[in-house]
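for the writeup, i need someone to sanity check this before i put it in the appendix. the sequnce is what the collaborator sent (i think, or maybe the updated version? ugh). structure was predicted straight from it, no edits. if anything looks off just tell me and ill rerun, i have time this weekend
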Amino acid sequence: MKVIKRSGESEEFDRRKTIAAVVRADVPLDEAEGIVNRLESQLYEGITTEEIYRRVHDMLQGRKAARFSLKKAFLKLGPEGEHFETYVSRLFQMEGFKTETRQMLDGSCVSHEVDVVMSKNEERIMVECKFHNSLGVRSNIQCALYVYARFLDLKDTCNLDRPMLVTNTRFSSDAERYSRCMGMDLIGWRTPEGSGLESLATKHRLFPITVLELRRSDQTVLLAHRFIVVDDVLDRLADLRMLLPKDSAKDIESQARELLRG
């Protein structure tokens, strides 16, 4: 059975890959296998990966559905990258770093606005965040070259020890190879394996607020008022209830408690 990827390319449906994706949403293996069994009866030649995602999502409920939609939730932090930068800053605070966002720093040649500057154990790291609105887009070699060139201009004047590039999707093979050669850390979707963006988010249970089922108008309001992660809902209940209609606020609070419980 051929499925159509977001890139337009076709490939054979991979049952094991689909089961693994469901299991990563904190679904027990036997339940994941049952979901994929139901899915396989609905497949047809030329079905898109987007349609497969939608059907699996509809078979899940509550926090399992939210966890399964994590990848798309990061896309919804756009269209600009500012909310993603704030999210990355908060994520690394959970890793024990002191962080500052959108800092204007003077380099040897020119000034640069750096997305996140973070420090821990006397190490100071420059973090550049590359946000994408589409899952099929990878951060390429040009992006890696650009980040490293900025680091070279800033490292002496700002006492920076190393650069890091963070994205909500993946990296091209050239970007990965160059970054390994230059000692630049990469954090992306399942990059590095076992400690990528989704692994860190799950480890700290720091989920973007867009992982919740939100009306577009409610999402716009919450992001505009700096509700970036699900924790913000429970930490700022008074603001939530002031900003949104009563029914919407109640539903969002219920979803947040369900996702973060246990």
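Strands lie at 2-4, 10-12, 47-48, 98-106, 111-120, 123-130, 138-139, 162-167, 170-171, 185-187. The CA atoms of residues 63 and 261 lie 9 Å apart.
thx in advance!!
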